[in-house]
Amino acid sequence: MGTFQNEGSSPPPCGGEVARAKPETERGVTAPSSRRSPQKIERARQLRHSDNLAEATLWNELKAKKLGGYKFVRQMPLGPYFADFACRSAKLVVELDGSQHVESSYDRRRDEFMRAQGYSVIRFWSADAVKNLASVCETILAALNGRLSEEVVSSDLRFVFAGTKKAGDGSL
């Protein structure tokens, strides 16, 4: 018989404990850097945990791909702003606004920035998310499915269409 050779993943012949693999961070391999700054991540967490009944109510309908199978995230950083809800695949931002947002020039600048990033923005009153949740969800679904394809502004809704092409569609 020949001598024992340590080949493959066999334990070493010297007995004792088998060396265990260390996590990458202990081996000196650094974790990949996040796409977002720690400050933005912390701010998004604070916004997600704030006591906002309207956002919590709508989130229950959007999370876990409940609305038409579309995946949404909450408080997504987008440039210097945070989107209340965003569907990355459909490039749609959903915002819930209180009465302090009536005719807000700040919101118009946000909408234009998000549109420049390729996102359409749809805004609802927070009260509607609580009192008329089914209508709000149906309107969001209409935007996701392309049934809203131009700007709409009314007393209870604002939709800023980005006008981007859909994958494989060839049209606006």
TrEMBL record:
Keywords: Endonuclease, Hydrolase, Nuclease
InterPro entries, per database record: DUF559, Endonuclease_DUF559_bact, Restrct_endonuc-II-like
UniProt region (Disordered), positions on chain: 1-47
UniProt signal peptide: none
Pfam family, one: DUF559
CDD domains: Endonuclease_DUF559
GO molecular function term, any single one: endonuclease activity
PANTHER family on file: BLL0828 PROTEIN
Name of the protein: Endonuclease domain-containing protein
Species the sequence originates in: Mesorhizobium zhangyense
